[in-house]
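User: Fold this, then the next.

Assistant: Folding the first:
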Amino acid sequence: HLAEITRIVSRDKNYAMRATPTGKGDEPDILIGAFNEMLRQIQQREGALQQAHDELEERVEERTAQLAAANKELEAFSYSVSHDLRAPLRGIDGFSLALLEDYAERLDDQGKEHLQRIRAATQRMGMLIDDLLNLSRMTRAEIHKERFNISTLAHSVVESLQEAHAKRRIEFRIEDGLEANADPRLLRVVLENLLGNSCKFTSKRTSARVEFGKMHRNGSTAYFVRDNGAGFDPAYADRLFGAFQRLHGATEFPGTGIGLATVQRIIHRHGGQIWAEGEVEKGAAFYFTL
């Protein structure tokens, strides 16, 4: 009888079954009692595991619904920012320009300077809106990974930067033959930001140097962008990747403080990490894994 019950339990995984005690209190009866107790404990644990699984599924469904709702709100916010805020900014900038062009003879130098400041502020606000929208898009963009030559991508970004900074002497060192498994479109955004930052923060160097390459750290491959620019105080390294966080004044180096937050968002969505090392006036290096 016990052997038959054991075969059924093993075959059907039916832990609700029980062997019938002989009632004699002998050794086989003790064995049947121990077997039944084992089945009871297994059944109890299986029930608890199933309950935990059901609760987890319920929480996952609830969380998925919350994320879907949050994405819809984010899309609505992005639309509002893109359309409702741009219109008055264009109006302010346009009328300021009209005043400067059509009423220039009636304005003194101070009045013209005020209007120029208004225009600069509206244009900066426009850039900030663009960067915020980019950050939002990076959060929601689908990732399509593929194997590609990231060195070729870096060269392409560098060509654009060389055109934008044609009057400067910048030595670019790109390690050739590097490959990556990632979304090429999003990695272009990463390299445009990191290499662009290196160009910006080396602007006060008569001989600037910007490098892109690969190294191995803790058993994984890390790509890096390194320069000999202004650097930063390592005590504030944790602030680098926060939105609107700037370690340099806007008058010293232009920007909105959104770029590195966007880069971090992309790297994290690839399952990687990003960190930075640097010293004031001794350059900076940004490392990322994928």
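Now the next one, as you asked:
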Amino acid sequence: MMRTDVYTTPEAFERLAGEWNALLKRSASNTLFLTREWQQTWWRELGDGELRVLAMREDGALVGIAPLFFATNALGAVEVALVGCKEVSDYLDFIFARGCEPACFRVVVDFLKSSDAPAWQAISLCNLIETSPTLGVFVELLNAEGWRAQVVFEDVCPVIALPDTFDAYLAMLDGKERRELQRKLRRASGDVAVTFTTDAATLARDMDDFIALMKASSPNKAAFMTPRMTCFFHAIARAMFEAGWLQLAFLEVERVRAAAYMNFVYEGAVMVYNSGLRPEKYAYLSPGQVLIARLIQKAIQDGCREFDFLQGNEEYKYKFGGRNVKLYTLSARR
């Protein structure tokens, strides 16, 4: 028989810490953005509204987590969303053990019908990957309640399936793109160095440098990096570093940091989270492209199977060989 505990405070993340990530690895939604470390940090730094974390157990074993919160949206309606939604968590979902999804979805629906849930008018579950069971079973259950569920295309994540060698990777590229990339790598070979943050004592300073490069990249990135978002980036970098998942890389020209990538390495995949560069300097070296190529090369050497550019259909992602993985938003109204 399934038992459900409903947590209403951030204590949930600590109470479930010993089991959370183990369940995630048994689920169909195993992504860094659903780890306990990410979810807890996101809620602490960016969370708003009323938290409800549902923990489902069968014979004492944790088989499901539904990390939800209830907040008023731009239209004035109280909306049910997943912790982490929206702009800084590229993949989200429920965390249900494989084979337990139908029963866990039923628990979520029954909770939303009950007086234990805050009064709500809408559901918006963002960043669901195209293979998610949520897009099937949960939609059917919502519609059976008369809650008018719909699934809408949201964005893409271009992903490279990595081969065994960098030469094999280059051979995957379009001929023109391959020759251009090889030319840029040769031109930069004697002038640049790629460095990584490996010391906890320098992490805060390195993140300051990264954020400065990010803000220098474009007006949009500068506007995005508000004081609150800056605090989040520092906090998430610290949490990911301590978990062993952060890859903070810099391309240095004459010991000056010209480009940077903040990536995560999780379960055999490198995820390209954000980047920065000085567009007015070292343009002749194409520092951003050289750095990303070197990081792809490192990912292959390290035995990673995927290089995930995360959300956005920027042209450069396809020039490097990215292939689209689609994301959807599931919405419903009472």
